[in-house]
UniProtKB/TrEMBL annotation, chains A, B:
<dbReference type="InterPro" id="IPR055060">
    <property type="entry name" value="ACOX_C_alpha1"/>
</dbReference>
<keyword id="KW-0560">Oxidoreductase</keyword>
<keyword id="KW-0443">Lipid metabolism</keyword>
<dbReference type="InterPro" id="IPR002655">
    <property type="entry name" value="Acyl-CoA_oxidase_C"/>
</dbReference>
<dbReference type="Pfam" id="PF01756">
    <property type="entry name" value="ACOX"/>
</dbReference>
<keyword id="KW-0274">FAD</keyword>
<protein>
    <recommendedName>
        <fullName>acyl-CoA oxidase</fullName>
        <ecNumber>1.3.3.6</ecNumber>
    </recommendedName>
</protein>
<dbReference type="Pfam" id="PF02771">
    <property type="entry name" value="Acyl-CoA_dh_N"/>
</dbReference>
<dbReference type="InterPro" id="IPR006091">
    <property type="entry name" value="Acyl-CoA_Oxase/DH_mid-dom"/>
</dbReference>
<feature type="domain" description="Acyl-CoA oxidase C-terminal">
    <location>
        <begin position="518"/>
        <end position="663"/>
    </location>
</feature>
<feature type="domain" description="Acyl-CoA dehydrogenase/oxidase N-terminal">
    <location>
        <begin position="34"/>
        <end position="144"/>
    </location>
</feature>
<feature type="domain" description="Acyl-CoA oxidase C-alpha1">
    <location>
        <begin position="297"/>
        <end position="458"/>
    </location>
</feature>
<dbReference type="InterPro" id="IPR037069">
    <property type="entry name" value="AcylCoA_DH/ox_N_sf"/>
</dbReference>
<dbReference type="GO" id="GO:0071949">
    <property type="term" value="F:FAD binding"/>
</dbReference>
<dbReference type="Pfam" id="PF22924">
    <property type="entry name" value="ACOX_C_alpha1"/>
</dbReference>
<comment type="similarity">
    <text>Belongs to the acyl-CoA oxidase family.</text>
</comment>
<dbReference type="GO" id="GO:0055088">
    <property type="term" value="P:lipid homeostasis"/>
</dbReference>
Length: 676, 676
């Protein structure tokens, strides 16, 4: 809190009052898949009752209810838009992300069960399997006739999947793989669909052929019979009640260590590696690490989807909290009629709590759309180069981390902004908090994901970057000149370009630019990114030069690596939003008022981001204390400017009213009537 | 993230390795009421099963279970230690806070129901009533024979209680009060014990006598008959499922607007005001606002208790997360044996996530102890002056805000630090998150509470400060010279004193002091506080001078007021911890190792607090960028120093193992055994 001074009277020559056209803004947010989004928005109210069932049903009944809804959604076609048409899918990956993102406005157990069945289980068969697997399974998966599991995580290994313990040993005598769980901690854990509905699992296991280890591979393993009972040699345990998502039947799976669980050779998902009948291992990718990360890379849609769901959940929370702030009055302040209390959203602090988060949610929405388009292009073969694929993986990891942290933060603040009412389950905050909580750690722990992003930045996505473990990465970077690292990131070059575009040309761009110039915002975000990456490289190098153990060196710079990665993703998010806003300025379908509103939102997002990290910018000579205070003042001004359109801005999210649940929280009080 | 450089090799002449004696540290934490704490810690495992019942029982059954446990706790004497001995209580307010704080290590529905019955309901009868009420109710309340409600909050008015709508109109003809709920929104809401178990309520209502309004007063109103059914004219509704605390039966209460609910004149809790039989209102306190806040002030124990519970919940979360970090290994880093993965807590980032929060929890513990002692002194008549009482109210409000936000923050971070395992209900995070969530908004919304603290700071607790509404406060402050405000806060004088004690004497204390000098830490916290208060005063004055509407002026400086209040409470917290650590240095029962460890914890708390707000210190000329970077480096160093004793530091919290629930999460993995 800088003691800047927004208490002077408003400037009559100040910026014009804002207004927006809600349908126009919704159309901008909906983007290229507006039709799909509309379809899902129309579908969702049909199942709005699930939100209540989550509270009232016992766990068993709720799991069945959620399964039934998932099957109905499958029937509607909304769940499998990304699968090839010949198997009943929609053949459109971009559409499938848009559909999933929109489904996330509703009950999240339903969403996650859709994700488990169609994204994880179906996605693994589609991406890691070949024609024979597609023909055998995909139609049944798309229709929901075959429910399945994605059995990767183990009790002992979540983040470090490469080290998991389950084994698949090829037995050439019978042309079968023997699946075993060698230790209790190698049991598959937290597996959706495992506790109850899954008949088949894609199991990730260490492949051993003729006594040789080939790393982690995926196989199709039946786990339940037609009677719903575990097959012989398969032990299944329920994960029990969870913080949230209790409509999803997570469980544990162990395969008999004595080796009684066997699957035919053909069950190996063999897109990237195969075993011949007589037991010869073949793969076009030599490094087992790189092979594994190539496999994982094909499953990137999961991360894109979780991030999208996080943003949708934040939109629901903001819709409720902003509408509440626009009808709830508390304390008389003398600004309104005599005896009238003030609206919550007319308090400066309330604006400060909600509006920068609203702006950031718009920004993350843009970032998710850019990411989804990128995913679509790579997986539809529009772009085929390896670099584009690696950038996609990095972008998906980083965006997932920021989107899911956004959800946690926004939901918490919105819930607190609704006071006691926010605590009742009849509003959506209880379920939103509990259900989204796991988003920050599943499909990759956020810190581990940012570490991955950082590794990619430091090594310029060297062809084998994901294969480098932490030691390898430290040694790799230590072997480079720091300048090389900076050069490699290419941020440097981009930064030079932007500097040319800014006033001051040379070194004074950061003091001469207008605070509301998007080029200034982007330049600041880029400067931070570049500087942090170079700093990490320097520290890694220095540590190794001082003969420290690389593991210890890494441990010490780890928070710096994460900061660099975060700065990188923040820059991508800002650029996505700036680009979307710029596109709207060119779009004849967008009216002038809506353009101005988008500009203000983008400014608020960018400046509140700089404000939050202004210590760093000051420490690194890119922000004077005077300018820092001016930014704080400007953020307050932008909040006040945006306040009158806050309701419209959440209305543009187009969350179906039926999904908001809490009528009393969001509709104006109806006066002094009493029902005795 | 500053790119400071802790990657140089460790200094062999650096500070000595730390160790602590756990029982000694527990004794320090336990303080003067060690015996009570021990008694409750021994009691709690008896009811550990409630933690599981919260998941497995349906709501009705769980409410009954919780009620039964509360009655058993009442029998043990642990619930009513603050009541006079003649009614079966313990006659020791300090002990009652210590008992409540320790109960908070267990199930929080049990805790909150204890709080509703003994703290809120019983406390209101004790503090607002007189002998006749004490004799009539207290024995039954203490024993649990009479369960009751504290019916203050209404649907329409939570934070602004002075404006609530329920009325109590004196009818001199019958010598009765008529209790009515004039509008639907004036219904009492979120009232614990209302939905099911409460027979009687202390109802807060606008008192009207002979056509004249006298503001909010409290009356004893029976709401249920012996058959458990609402009495005629009383309508009760269940608040339904909540995010957490589902063992507490919250509900809504309306009193027939036609006026059929009547209570005898004697039911007015008449310690501060009374009505004679023939309808004359009398009170020793003239201002109705001041009278109301005097009443509220007597209920301050509730806020102290909630804050204490927040700190206890944070301790439980830290105990689980730190122990998990000490047994969970993930990724090989080359620092250990070949093939051995690294412990989570050996990662720099993991230390950064958990250890400053651990230090802050110790600091908040100290602050709560100082607050509890202050409460004890005021309510046991040890100190009787008005100022001490006002300072207590302010301190209780501010500490409650910081303690409950600490809980929200620590629990979230600890849960994320336990990955997927943290999401299962078998660990405690699900319940901890859900149950503590409401702490930030009940017993006063945290932001509203900090506003109250800010108001007190600005007006130097002017005798009628709490009676000043926002407009009044703005006008009051605007009428003062800014220097007067600063002078009045007395922070200025204290600050001068500390400056004299620091090297540099005059203006260079902030650059010449050692980073680990507690006087430096306190001086920094004080400087921030003083500067923020003066800044608010200046802005209020300027706004009023510019002829802005005082409500608008307040709205604009509101975040600044909150920041000033927060800085004030942060300073109190730091001083409490510094004092506790200093006392340990003098205490012959404390060994040298434990002293050193406490010093390091206090340094970590103080410096990570400065680090988090270093932007502000730089903006206000009290921190160079070089020194800011040095602080960041020092925080990292302190984390590494404290890492080896992290397990002991959480063990010293002495959370009974039975209450941690998650054996797999916190005990070392048991090797390669398998249960087939």
């Amino acid at each position: 809190m800088a003691d800047t001074d927004p208490t002077t009277a408003p400037d009559p020559t100040g910026p014009p009052a804002l207004s927006v056209d809600v349908p126009t803004l919704t159309a901008i947010l909906d983007g290229p898949h507006a039709e799909v989004r509309r379809m899902v928005r129309e579908l969702l109210p049909t199942y709005a009752g699930v939100l209540e069932d989550a509270e009232t049903m016992d766990r068993d009944a709720f799991r069945e209810r959620v399964k039934d809804v998932v099957l109905e959604i499958a029937d509607s076609g909304a769940a499998a838009m990304g699968f090839p048409q010949e198997y009943g899918g929609g053949g459109d990956i971009g559409a499938s992300i848009a559909a999933f993102e929109t489904l996330a406005l509703g009950d999240l157990s339903v969403l996650v069960k859709v994700g488990v069945q169609f994204g994880l289980f179906g996605g693994a068969i589609l991406q890691l399997g070949t024609q024979r697997h597609h023909d055998a399974y995909l139609s049944d998966i798309v229709s929901g006739r075959l429910l399945g599991c994605f059995a990767m995580t183990e009790t002992g290994h979540g983040s470090n999947v490469q080290a998991l313990g389950t084994t698949a040993t090829y037995d050439a005598a019978t042309a079968e793989f023997v699946i075993t769980t060698p230790t209790e901690a190698a049991g598959k854990d937290y597996i959706g669909n495992a506790a109850r509905h899954g008949r088949t699992a894609v199991v990730f296991a260490q492949l051993e052929v003729a006594g040789e280890q080939h790393g982690v591979h995926a196989l199709v393993v039946p786990i339940r019979g037609d009677d719903g009972q575990p097959l012989p040699g398969v032990r299944i345990e329920d994960d029990g009640p969870k913080m949230g998502l209790n409509g999803v039947d997570n469980g544990r799976i162990w395969f008999d260590p004595a080796g009684t669980v066997r699957v035919p050779r053909e069950n190996l998902l063999n897109r990237f590696a195969d075993v011949t009948e007589d037991g010869v291992y073949t793969s076009e990718i030599e490094s087992s690490g790189r092979r594994f990360f190539t496999m994982l890379g094909t499953l990137v849609q999961g991360r894109v989807s979780v991030g999208a769901a996080g943003v949708s959940a934040a939109k629901v929370a903001l819709t409720i909290a902003v509408r509440y702030g626009l009808q709830r009055r508390q304390f008389e302040t003398g600004t309104g009629e005599e005896g009238e209390e003030q609206l919550l959203l007319d308090y400066g602090l309330h604006q400060r709590r909600l509006l920068p988060r609203l702006a950031r949610t718009y920004a993350m929405h843009s970032a998710q759309q850019v990411l989804a388009a990128h995913l679509h292009d790579v997986f539809s073969g529009v772009t085929t180069d390896e670099e584009s694929r690696r950038l996609l993986e990095s972008r998906a990891a980083g965006t997932k981390a920021l989107s899911t942290w956004l959800a946690t933060d926004v939901i918490q603040e919105c819930r607190e902004a609704c006071g006691g009412a926010g605590y009742l389950s009849v509003n959506r905050f209880a379920a939103l908090k509990a259900d989204t909580d796991v988003f920050t750690t599943f499909e990759g722990d956020n810190h581990v994901l940012l570490q991955l992003v950082g590794k990619g930045l430091l090594t310029d996505y060297a062809s084998d970057f994901s294969d480098l473990d932490q030691l390898g990465m430290v040694r790799f970077v230590a072997g480079l000149a720091v300048e090389t690292v900076v050069e490699r990131t290419r941020v440097h070059k981009l930064f030079e370009q932007i500097r040319d575009a800014l006033p001051g040309g040379g070194d004074s761009w950061d003091t001469d630019s207008g605070l509301l110039d998007p080029s200034y915002h982007v330049a600041m975000y880029r400067f931070r990114e570049e500087h942090l990456i170079a700093g990490v490289a320097r520290r890694l190098k220095r540590g190794v030069d001082a003969d420290m153990n690389p593991g210890e060196v890494f441990s010490r710079v780890q928070d710096h690596v994460i900061a660099a990665a975060r700065a990188h993703v923040e820059r991508l998010v800002l650029e996505a939003f700036v680009d979307q806003v710029a596109a709207a300025q060119q779009d004849p379908a967008v009216d002038e008022d809506t353009r101005l509103a988008l500009n203000a939102l983008c400014d608020l997002h960018a400046l509140s981001g700089i404000e939050a990290d202004r210590a760093w910018f000051m420490e690194h000579g890119r922000l004077t204390t005077q300018r820092a205070k001016a930014i704080t003042r400007e953020v307050g001004d932008l909040c006040r400017r945006i306040r009158p359109i806050a309701g419209d801005l959440v209305d543009a999210f187009a969350v179906p009213t039926e999904l908001l649940r809490a009528p009393a929280l969001i509709t104006p009080e109806t006066g002094p009537e009493i029902v005795a």
